[in-house]
Amino acid sequence: MAISLRNTVICVLIVAFILLATLQTTDIGNRSSNRRNVNPEPSTSSSATSTSFSQCTHPVHKLIFIKTHKTGSSTIATTLARYADEKGLKLATPIWTHIFHETNSFSHNMVLSFGDMGHFDILTSHARYNRKEMDMVISNPKYITIIRNPVKQLESAYSYYSMAKHIGIQTDGDHELQAFLKQPRYYFDNYDYFMKVQSWNGQIFDLGLEHADHLNQTLVRRKIQQIDAEFDLVMINEYFDESLVLLRKQFYWDWEDIVYISKGVRKTTLRHKITPELAAKIQQWNSADVQLYDHFNRTFWGKVAQYGPNFNKDVLYFKELREEITSRCLDMNSHSNPAYDKRVENHKLKPNAPNYCKNMISGTMQYVNWMKFMYVFHRVLLPLSLVCLGCAFMLFLCRRFRRGNADQYRLLNNTTDLGSDEKVVPI
After folding, report:
1. Comparing C-alpha atoms, which of 357, 296, 391 is closest to residue 17?
2. pLDDT by residue (tens digit) across 338-362?
3. Contact call for residues 157 and 71 (beta carbons, < 8 A)
4. Bridge partner residues of 234 (DSSP)
5. What order of strands is seen across the sheet that includes strand 63-66?
6. pTM of the complete model
7. CA-CA distance, 394 to 206, in Å (whole number)?
8. What pLDDT, on the 0 to 100 scale, is given for residue 29?
9. What is the distance of C-alpha 52 from the center of its chain?
10. 76 contacts 145 by C-beta, under 8 angstroms
11. Calpha distance 106→117 (Å, rounded)
12. Residue 20: is its pLDDT beyond 60?
């Protein structure tokens, strides 16, 4: 019975190890195969621009994305996480969930790490900007972020996070935001509601400026100047495709690296009508975000001017490529709500969609959880499996050695007894 149990344990360990290794190899192979087929060439004259840039240096593989709230950042984060997965890069992930922290400034202790601090490649999950701590996670990274018109951003955050419900404002949908903006400072100071930090200058808060400093114009301007000096690219939500085209050239990436399918698009029933009067109130309340947006909306077009004469053609090509990918992957007539979030629209994949579409449709949470599993597999599960397999094998050898010694001892005793017997066995 003991020998049978031991053999069973050894067989289970060997089979588990082989299955884990096969899972990893198969997945990597599938993702690499998917990637090779993700870049169809639209049959238009603008497709010639896809090779208009010489790759004069290596692609950027070290970057940190400050994921601001309700700015289209989920689509960017998913695109970057997919890039890390397909390139075999190390994605810095939170220890427990898919975000680092909504309110506290980032600390390197928030990262799931087994001796790899400083050797990660990409960070995309929600984290408040803290340059010193982030540089401890990734060595010499590029920094990027995305911002949005503060009027649209506050309206999106207010409805998406159901702030009126959590505050207790009792009005119909279109008047909830108006009621809040009648006395926003009163609600902010006296109520503790879900995602409160995003109801007042949420974007510059994500970028590191505390709420206590939002009315200090000197500190606001200083923060904007700091971001301008320390960030390599600040994208603009209203010019989403243009921003990604800039990113592609600046980081020496390929077209398939930046193609995307939109994530986290709010349902139309969760949108508020914005009147000119309401927009003016939002701009007054979120004045720090307005200054942030105005500054980088100006510098954005400076980067466009530096891009060169092919910018508009490349943007057109990218839009055509994205539309073709979307038409190949999605059934635009069928909608469903993801089980984890019923606040957003989600298109279904076509039954005959190419394999790479599954990667394109995956969300930030799925990628973070997958990359976290693979990291733990490499750093913990695989070494532990090898140790367990080695221990089981050593136990097996020891048992065999002891059994062999016992058999040899019994044989020696039998031989000795036979030699001492005086009886002669006739032949």
Report:
1. 391
2. 544 555 566 788 888 888 888 888 8
3. no
4. 145
5. 91-92, 122-123, 63-66, 142-147, 233-236
6. 0.79
7. 54
8. 43
9. 30
10. no
11. 14
12. no
